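Practice set, problem 2.
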Amino acid sequence: MSSPKIKKIAPLGFPWETQDPFLFCVHHEDFYPKGNEAMGPAVSLSGRALGNDFTIRDGFRMYHGQTVPGFPAHPHRGFETVTIARKGFVDHSDSLGAAGRFGAGDVQWMTAGKGVQHCEMFPLVNKEADNPFEIFQIWLNLPRASKLVEPHFAMLWADTIPTYVHHDAQGLATEVKVIAGKIGEVQAPAPAPNSWAANPANEVGIWTIQMAPNARWTLPLAAKETNRSLYFFKGGTLQVAGQPLALNHTAQVFAHEEVELVNGPEPSQLLLLQGKPLQEPVVQYGPFVMNTREEIQQAMHEFQRTEFGGWPWPSYAHVHPREKGRFARYADGTVVEKK
């Protein structure tokens, strides 16, 4: 049965399918064991394709890490990365000299702009117990006018990200972490200054949704031209606008229509991404996203010549000391420490 309120339903792939203004979305969940002295897995890595290990084995991947899981130094240009760290920790280091360790619901928002290198490593800081890990990484496009802005790095700490709570007629709760955008009077922290999300008229929303068993919630309305995608990644059964949405599927819905979510007998979790489209040409070559092939070639040549500022850290897979807590060190030298 089709619904006039739903554009499309599709299974979640790797990465997840996105709509303009988003370019990319991936959900990483790994069940890492205890950490060793180097903050890597305290188990044998024999048989893994280290440096390119995207196969789940013993419950976890190493990604491009050879000792510590993660993504050693790599460049970006022309878009933004939004990393939501739900479990475990991410160690960030970049070519601007900025750095940080974040987790427990923190979000890193990085505008690559004209070019930056960074590494994102997943240190297993706990030597006495397992190190469960879960993040979303989302790529948000930059408009042509902002593709070559100065790079920007910001932390949205978990205690600054507001929660919208809805109780339905039965008193059952839906809780929404508002990372970008607004629901009613609940306003997300300010995004990066040159972001497409910085203009409220663009209706960019990044929300993580948790529904209690049998809860109901109707999505708030947005403009007709706003693209809206729902990703059902944890739970049992769910209905969207009266149509079943299977677990590990996405529904692209019309933002100007009243779309009710009706959860089944298990708790459910979803990610929502929305925004007005840029409607500009997209030419991508790996970590570079521009508007023309000539601009991609220019990006490659500039990176080969400048390395976007070089690499000021002792390793391309740099991690911070085990005892270091959550923190952010910005390019201007400002340091913020969190408990």
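Problem 2, part (b): a different protein.
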Amino acid sequence: MLALTSGVAPLLQSQPDPTGGGLLAVVGTVLLGWLFYAVTLHLAATFFVGDVPTQPAAAAGVVPAVVSLLLGRYGLGEQTLVSPGVDFVVALVAILVADALAINYAYDLPWKATAALTALHFAFASVLIVALNNIFGFV
């Protein structure tokens, strides 16, 4: 049993998880990632293809959100494959491949156009996350 000294509870975790790590945190993270990827994919597709409906972007946006969450939770961490830098590259390639497969399925594009739209989606997402980080300081 832990004893309380001077009315202050001892710190039980060295680095407490602000989200609690529960199911609600996982669902919220997936939904937020899905929204982010869907919006940036729709912007990239509108720029690349032209006037497109939002449904394909919403359908394809869930794939990179889930893959990035799974890689962040189970693929990367303290037990690295080679080094943190190499693990980052492996995760980035895996997310881009999953994104390309989802884009190809959702938009039914040829593979060259899929590769171009995937690269454009990566560029739009990178620019938006840097801008949001500069505004709100997420990272």
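Answer key, part (b): The helical segments are 23-48, 55-75, 84-107, 111-136. Residues 19 and 135 are 22 Å apart (CA to CA).
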